[in-house]
Specification:
314 residues; 11 helices
């Protein structure tokens, strides 16, 4: 069974996991991502080197025990360690495997790196163009069987709505700035004293009310109503937070409801995942499948390994 070091590179954070096969043995989280690369990649390289050494030491392993370092996400962007162009759709595991790029970064490790490309759609209009880095590995680690007539919803900083064909290839997707909107609006506007992101629960009625209000009156107006709920109606922090989250998710929910897909598969971050599930079960008659938190947590790592090992599975 092969051992891997898997690097899931984000914009602001990076996760490094040591695996035995597809089983994650341990993970180190680095508070650096591609954004720091705008000023140079040296800090990220140093942090990765330290993370690799730490993980290997924990399990009394040497670099000779590791088959490859598999790296995906924003680490392949122009601000990452290895800039690679996106792979155009349709793209599945086979296409992602063929497009892998192997190289040695000796200043970090003697283990070869294998960088996995992101995916893009392309056309003549804005509507036809989109891109992702990292969500493709998350998708292929989320489930063993992808098929047509399903829409895969991956909530997060940049939420993705992904359509696959009968061969499990990504054929279309759209991106929404959901997670970043939640963070920015709750921390950088007048809503700061009305929205508490530390709340781990949901008021389902308030969540649905927020979504419906935004669908009917627009997101801009719905967001200010959070302040009205707090100041004029003296509603609890739970209700204000839930209404706010429902309003933010309204555009996503609207897009999902318009999709011809009959089944929705939801992964992504736990708090947004749960809210998305509640809204869809309330507002739609589509079949809803929700990935467990455990499945979601290791999905990017499993997906990267499945892509790398693809030919050995044939």
């Amino acid at each position: 069974m092969n051992n891997y070091l898997c690097v899931d590179g984000g914009t602001t954070n990076t996760r490094v996991s040591l695996t035995q096969g597809t089983t994650v043995l341990d993970t180190v989280r680095i508070p650096l991502g591609a954004r720091v690369g705008m000023e140079g990649t040296a800090p990220l390289k140093k942090a990765l080197k330290q993370a690799f050494e730490e993980l290997l030491e924990r399990f009394s392993l040497s670099e000779a025990h590791i088959t490859r370092i598999l790296a995906s996400g924003m680490i392949t962007s122009e601000f990452g360690l290895c800039a690679l162009p996106h792979l155009p759709t349709p793209a599945g595991i086979a296409e992602l495997h063929e497009a892998m790029h192997e190289t040695l970064l000796s200043e970090i490790s003697s283990i070869p790196f294998v960088f996995l490309r992101g995916v893009k759609t392309a056309g003549d209009t804005l509507l036809e163009n989109d891109m992702m880095r990292g969500e493709e590995t998350e998708l292929y680690g989320l489930t063993d069987e992808l098929g047509a007539d399903r829409l895969y919803v991956l909530p997060g900083s940049h939420s993705k709505l992904i359509t696959t064909d009968e061969r499990g290839r990504i054929v279309h997707f759209s991106t929404m700035l959901t997670g970043e909107m939640i963070a920015s609006l709750s921390g950088g506007t007048i809503l700061k004293d009305a929205v508490d992101l530390s709340i781990g629960e949901l008021d389902e009625a308030a969540l649905t009310d927020g979504c419906k209000y935004a669908l009917q009156q627009g997101l801009n107006e719905a967001l200010f109503k959070v302040r009205i709920l707090k100041n004029q109606f003296q509603k609890s922090p739970l209700i204000c937070y839930s209404f706010f989250l429902g309003a933010i998710l309204a555009c996503e929910i609207q897009a999902i409801l318009k999709s011809p897909a009959k089944e929705i598969v939801i992964g992504g971050k736990a708090q947004i995942k749960r809210a998305t599930e509640v809204l869809l079960r309330t507002l739609s008659d589509k079949r809803i499948t929700v990935a467990s938190d455990c499945t979601v947590d290791g999905s990017s790592t499993r997906g990267a390994i499945r892509i790398f090992e693809f030919k050995t599975q044939e």
